[in-house]
């Protein structure tokens, strides 16, 4: 058997209960979806504003396809960079109030491209331990000295920066931590970067569209601006479509155009998606009520789950993780919810630390208060079952 070693590894994962299964989604992404032929209410998506299935985006995508065709046909530096990509970069730069923007096909590719283009083996990276996997992979690929500090530990970061003799220092942080939902202390990170002459890369995948009065993200949320910041956000979450972008000073962005390998050596995103994203930006900016509704749902969920044996992590964002503890129990609670028609994904090690397996509840403006009440009641019912077994 040529692949018997792989089969053994898979069997070992299975024995640890760590094999993952894909569900088949048969409807547009929304609060109510059809999965494996069943109607369920889902708390699994990053479609925080509830617009991924919005007919206006579908119409814009069709219009874009009519105007530009479907495939980009080439990479950006050859002949794939279309009018829609160009217009979207300009619109995004105005929206996040930074001088220049560069589109990437995905957030994973953006992080790989940004970190490897800006740093190399004489440089140093300082990263929060709970950063997204794409930032960690980027750090390894960059060949820079890679230091990680405990989650949110500004003193530790200060010590690492003070001790560094690197030519170039880049602090890297998720703006909203994807498995915990907390917001990074951006003003304090920026102060440290100023003190030690470092740059700051913020990954706002989960803040763009949601944080800030008009949804432009974590910089607006804190009211901070600095030429040291390299801002990155994704467009497949609150923006409801696909893709990502980097934003910052013109020299930074031009460096990415010239050097980011995950930008240069790949086909441009279908222009119809860039066209749809122009419509999405208008919705994000104009429809404040989506953010307001989401904020009310978050408050309602926290109130509803306050007395449970399992605790929500302290988060004010749409990501509300309910810590269960063991992987096995998290799987059982998730399965019991699924049996009641409620989908919440269990998140287990190695994605999160041992003993902190959790249900990652993500709320969307597409949910109603009744959907949240259904989740709360289901969890209360399941908890009673666990209490009996204790
Ligand atoms: N950064 C963070 C913090 C993320 O959560 C994600 C996606 N889960 C990404 C980057 C990658 O973005 P994309 O899905 O567009 O590749």
Describe this structure in words.
The protein is of the alpha/beta class. The chain folds into two domains: 131 residues, Aspartate Aminotransferase, domain 1, CATH 3.90.1150.10; 232 residues, Type I PLP-dependent aspartate aminotransferase-like (Major domain) (Aspartate Aminotransferase, domain 2). Helices cover 45% and strands 17% of the residues. The strands form three sheets. It has a seven-stranded mixed β-sheet with strand order 3-9-8-7-6-4-5, with helices on both faces. A four-stranded antiparallel β-sheet has the order 10-11-14-13, with helices on one face. A three-stranded mixed β-sheet has the order 1-2-12. Helix 5 crosses helix 10. It is globular, with a radius of gyration of 21 Å. 4'-deoxy-4'-aminopyridoxal-5'-phosphate (PMP) binds next to helix 5.
Write the layout of secondary structure elements.
Elements: H1 4-15, E1 32-35, E2 38-42, H2 55-68, H3 76-80, H4 83-96, E3 100-104, H5 107-118, E4 124-128, H6 133-142, E5 145-149, H7 154-163, E6 169-174, H8 186-195, E7 199-203, H9 218-222, E8 229-234, E9 244-248, H10 250-259, H11 261-264, H12 271-286, H13 288-305, E10 311-312, E11 319-325, H14 327-339, E12 342-343, E13 346-347, E14 357-362, H15 369-389
Parallel strand pairs: 2-12, 4-5, 4-6, 6-7, 7-8
Antiparallel strand pairs: 1-2, 3-9, 8-9, 10-11, 11-14, 13-14
The CATH class of the largest domain, by name, is Alpha Beta
Bound molecules: 4'-deoxy-4'-aminopyridoxal-5'-phosphate
Class based on secondary structure composition and strand pairing: alpha/beta
The termini sit apart by 45 Å
- Provide the β-strand percentage band: 15-25%
Q: What share of residues is helical?
A: 40-55%
Q: Can you give the mean pLDDT? A: 96
